[in-house]
């Protein structure tokens, strides 16, 4: 549906919903824990619903209430007499986490992806799993799997999705015997792996890390029981907070963002440092970040560790004096949309000066954006970035496919609408 976003800077305060990244991991580890777990979180996005549905298909008991999810673990001894269907929707995290987990249980069935997910790469992950006991077949609309995942030595390059490594780290504790994951070269989005390690430690898993030269190895002791806390509260989501932090950089009165863990391993916490480097006025206190407008200047942003917040940072760059360069961003082309293309299209549609490169963007700042009609490309992060762009426009922004925010942040338009418009 089309949504008209009134132009003008926003101000006020907002409480951030639960971290989607941490919620995925907490759900999975709760489903393979020894005892039932209550997960406290506000807001169930489509991606989290997809992970819950897939875990339920594997045998977990999942009950969703207002503000929490109750998880009864999968019975490891239960015999699976028929193939299971795992509906992962458009969630890349769900597919990449659940595929090795299904193998760890020796399950047979198929994943049913939607949208662009079938176009997003699985190699060399599928080859890695096949070499350790699984059989994976990809058709035009399904990914079939069978076979028992085995322990052993796994090798992956560091420039693939970190979700491959996280998926193995969560699945291999279920498999008897020691396993080693060897990752060669610099690991992209490495902080997401740290988040996985942190939660595995919470559940009692034994994972040892060794770094030597340009390689990193993870040693996992298989067969040991996992035990998540009986109650686990998911922290606030920095990926969602990034939109308001960037809005604050465009606001004289500022925006206060509440409900954040400033010591988190979430990589998108880096939005605070990047916004500071632009020149915005940023203050941090307790679980809050307050951001106000100041003189903004262009910067160079390395996208390799923070790909998800590049679209919204590009909006800030569009009204920052001088030139901003987005580098090491080739992986943005295989997200829910080609995010280099869709970000450039969004910015051009509202009057920005932007050039698209094979692995990045060059943005020359202008004083003000014009507004206009833009497409979300059915990509939640492009849709929310369009809302931020409206804060720097002299005219309204009409956004198509605005409902796609439900993939990660269903309440976004409600929360955005509660902010004061300064025009």
TrEMBL record:
Keyword Acetylation: no
EC category: transferase
Pathway: Metabolic intermediate biosynthesis; chorismate biosynthesis; chorismate from D-erythrose 4-phosphate and phosphoenolpyruvate: step 6/7
Pfam name, any one: EPSP_synthase
Protein biosynthesis recorded as keyword: no
Alphabetized NCBIfam families for the sequence: aroA
GO terms, biological process: amino acid biosynthetic process; aromatic amino acid family biosynthetic process; chorismate biosynthetic process
Function: Catalyzes the transfer of the enolpyruvyl moiety of phosphoenolpyruvate (PEP) to the 5-hydroxyl of shikimate-3-phosphate (S3P) to produce enolpyruvyl shikimate-3-phosphate and inorganic phosphate.
Major site of localization recorded for this protein: cytoplasm
Alphabetized PANTHER family for the sequence: AROM/DEHYDROQUINATE SYNTHASE, PENTAFUNCTIONAL AROM POLYPEPTIDE
UniProt-annotated location(s): Cytoplasm
Catalytic residues as annotated in Swiss-Prot or TrEMBL: 308 (proton acceptor)
EC number: 2.5.1.19
Catalytic reactions of this protein: 3-phosphoshikimate + phosphoenolpyruvate = 5-O-(1-carboxyvinyl)-3-phosphoshikimate + phosphate
Residues noted as binding 3-phosphoshikimate in the record, renumbered to the chain: 20-21, 25, 161-163, 189, 308, 335
InterPro entries named in the record: Enolpyruvate_Tfrase_dom (IPR001986), Enolpyruvate_Tfrase_sf (IPR036968), EPSP_synthase (IPR006264), EPSP_synthase_CS (IPR023193), RNA3'P_cycl/enolpyr_Trfase_a/b (IPR013792)
Subunit structure and binding partners: Monomer.
Name of the molecule in the record: 3-phosphoshikimate 1-carboxyvinyltransferase
Molecular function GO terms recorded: 3-phosphoshikimate 1-carboxyvinyltransferase activity
Keywords of the record: Amino-acid biosynthesis, Aromatic amino acid biosynthesis, Cytoplasm, Transferase
GO cellular component, one term: cytoplasm
Residue ranges of every copy of the Enolpyruvate transferase domain listed in the record: 11-415
CDD domains on file: EPSP_synthase (cd01556)
Family indicated by similarity: Belongs to the EPSP synthase family.
